[in-house]
From TrEMBL:
Membrane-traversing stretches: 21-41, 61-84, 91-110, 158-181, 193-212, 250-273, 293-312, 347-369, 381-401, 407-430
Coiled-coil portions: 208-246
Protein name as catalogued: Proline/betaine transporter
Compartment(s) of residence: Cell membrane
One GO MF term attached to the UniProt entry: transmembrane transporter activity
Lineage: Bacteria, Pseudomonadati, Pseudomonadota, Alphaproteobacteria, Holosporales
Organism (species): Candidatus Bodocaedibacter vickermanii
Membrane topology note: Multi-pass membrane protein
Keywords: Cell membrane, Coiled coil, Membrane, Transmembrane, Transmembrane helix, Transport
GO CC annotation, single: plasma membrane
Length: 444
C-alpha cells in the first residue's frame, strides 16, 4: 500500500487485526466514558460527596478529587505491567474493563455526604483510584497490543485510534454530564443512571474482549523462545525470569518519562483550570461550564482524527514538534487577553487551541515502545507513565492554585515552560536514535 491511501488502510489489515482494532477501540471508548464521567461532572458530584467549603478550599478539593485517580497508578502499573509482560496483553485489557464496570456500579449506588458523611468521600475517592488504575493499564495494553500486531506506517494511525476513541469516550461523558446537570433533570438520580449505563456496557465489553488473540510480536517472541529452549533442554521458567529482569537504558527511560509529563498540565488547563476560571471570574453555572467543555472535547476529537490521518503520511516526530511550537505560540497571549477582557468566549478559543495543539506522545508512541525490551515493555512504559502523570498532575493541580494566586493568569507558565523544555529535548533525543537506527541490543 502506498502512502496517501490511508482511507483504504483498514481494508489491508488482516481479519484478526481488524477485530483487534474494533474491540480495543470500543473498549477504550467505554473505559474513558466511565473514567471521565466523574471528572466532568465534578462541579456537581464534589458538592454531593464532599463537605461544602469556601471557594479557595473548594479549589483544593477539586484538585484532590481529580488527582485521586492517579494516586495508586504507579502501584497499578507494576501489577498490570507484570500481568501484561508475564501472562499477556489480552489478560490486562479484559481485567481492567471488568474493574471499571464494578467501580461504576459502586459509584452509582453510593449514598451522598449528606446521608453518610465523610464515609462517602472516602468511598468515592477509592472508586476513583480503582478507575484510574484500570484506565491507564487498559490504554497501555491496547496500544501495545496494536503496536506489536502491526508495522509502520499503518502502525501509527492504528495506535493513534486508541487515543481517538479515548477522546470520543471523553466527549460522550461530557455530553451526558451536560444533559444530566441541566435543571430539567433530577440531579440526585439522573447521574446515577449514567454510571449504571456505563457499567453495563463495560461488562458487555469485557465479555467481547475474551475473543481477542494475543499480540503477535509478544506471542511470537515467546513461542520462539520456548521452542529454542525445548531444543536445548532448558526450562522456560528459568529463562523467563532472566528476561523479566531485562533493563532499559536510563537515558531512554528518562526521555520517555519527560515525554509522559507533557499532557497532564495541558489537559488540566483545558478542562479543569479554565472551568474554574469560568465559574470564579465569569459566573458560569455547572451546566454552562460542562456544555462549553463538550464543544472543546469535540474539537479535541477532530484534532486527534487529523493526527491519525497525518501520521500515515508525515513522520510522527515532525508532527510532535509542530504541535509543540503551535501550542506555545497560541498560549502566550492567554494571560494578556483574559486580563483585559470580560468576554468568556475568549476562554473557549484558548481551550480549543490548546486541545488542537496539545503536546504529548501521540502519534509517536509505537516508536517509543520499541526502545523497551518486549518482555518488560508493559511494566516499564506503564510505570514511567504512571509516575509522570502522578507527579505532574499533582504539581499542576495544586501548583496552579497557588501560582495563579500570586502571578495571576501568568502562573500557568510556571508549570508549562519547564515541562515543555523537557518534552522538546526528549523528543529530539528519540529522533536522534531513529536517525541513527540505534536500537538496544535486545531489540535488534
Amino acid at each position: 500500500m502506498k502512502p496517501g491511501n490511508i482511507k483504504n488502510y483498514f481494508f489491508y489489515l488482516t481479519k484478526d487485526q481488524r477485530e483487534a482494532v474494533g474491540l480495543l477501540s470500543i473498549g477504550t471508548f467505554l473505559e474513558y466514558f466511565d473514567l471521565m464521567l466523574y471528572v466532568h461532572m465534578a462541579v456537581l458530584l464534589n458538592e454531593l460527596f464532599f463537605p461544602k467549603t469556601d471557594p479557595f478550599t473548594a479549589s483544593l478539593i477539586t484538585a484532590f478529587s481529580f488527582c485521586s485517580t492517579y494516586l495508586l497508578r504507579p502501584f497499578g502499573a507494576l501489577i498490570f505491567g507484570y500481568i501484561g509482560d508475564y501472562i499477556g496483553r489480552k489478560a490486562v485489557v479484559i481485567l481492567t474493563t471488568l474493574m471499571m464496570a464494578v467501580s461504576c456500579i459502586i459509584v452509582a449506588s453510593l449514598p451522598t455526604y449528606a446521608q453518610i458523611g465523610i464515609t462517602a468521600s472516602w468511598i468515592i475517592t477509592l472508586c476513583r483510584v480503582v478507575q484510574g488504575m484500570a484506565a491507564t493499564a487498559e490504554v497501555r495494553g491496547a496500544e501495545l497490543y496494536l503496536t506489536e500486531s502491526s508495522k509502520p506506517p499503518v502502525q501509527y494511525p492504528m495506535v493513534a485510534l486508541i487515543t481517538v476513541f479515548s477522546a470520543l469516550g471523553t466527549s460522550a461523558a461530557i455530553g451526558v454530564a451536560a444533559i444530566f446537570t441541566n435543571n430539567t433533570f433530577n440531579e440526585i438520580t439522573s447521574w446515577r443512571a449514567a454510571f449504571l449505563v456505563g457499567a453495563g456496557i463495560a461488562l458487555v465489553g469485557t465479555i467481547a474482549r475474551t475473543s481477542l488473540k494475543e499480540a503477535d510480536e509478544f506471542a511470537n517472541k515467546r513461542n520462539k523462545l520456548k521452542e529454542q529452549l525445548k531444543e536445548n533442554k532448558v526450562a522456560w521458567s528459568d529463562l523467563n525470569e532472566e528476561f523479566m529482569k531485562q533493563k532499559s537504558s536510563y537515558l531512554i527511560s528518562i526521555a520517555y518519562f519527560l515525554i509522559q509529563c507533557a499532557r497532564p498540565p495541558c489537559f488540566y488547563f483545558i478542562y479543569i483550570y479554565c472551568s474554574d476560571v469560568l465559574k470564579r471570574d465569569f459566573g458560569y453555572t455547572a451546566h454552562e461550564v460542562i456544555s462549553q467543555n463538550f464543544w472543546v472535547s469535540v474539537i479535541d476529537l477532530l484534532g486527534l482524527l487529523l493526527l491519525a490521518y497525518l501520521s500515515y503520511i508525515i513522520h510522527p516526530f515532525k508532527i510532535l514538534k509542530a504541535k509543540f511550537y503551535l501550542f506555545f505560540a497560541s498560549m502566550l497571549s492567554f494571560p494578556v487577553v483574559i486580563n483585559y477582557t470580560q468576554d468568556a468566549s475568549y476562554i473557549l478559543i484558548f481551550q480549543c487551541l490548546a486541545a488542537l495543539f496539545v503536546f504529548d506522545h501521540i502519534p509517536a508512541s509505537p516508536i517509543f515502545y520499541k526502545y523497551f525490551p518486549v518482555f518488560r515493555r508493559f511494566t516499564y512504559t506503564s510505570f514511567l507513565s504512571a509516575v509522570a502523570k502522578l507527579a505532574t498532575y499533582f504539581i499542576t493541580a495544586f501548583g496552579l492554585v497557588y501560582t495563579t494566586e500570586y502571578f495571576g493568569y501568568w502562573g500557568i507558565f510556571v508549570i508549562l515552560v519547564p515541562v515543555g523544555i523537557g518534552f522538546f529535548v526528549s523528543v529530539s533525543y528519540f529522533q536522534k536514535l531513529e536517525n541513527q537506527q540505534t536500537l538496544p541490543a535486545y531489540q535488534e
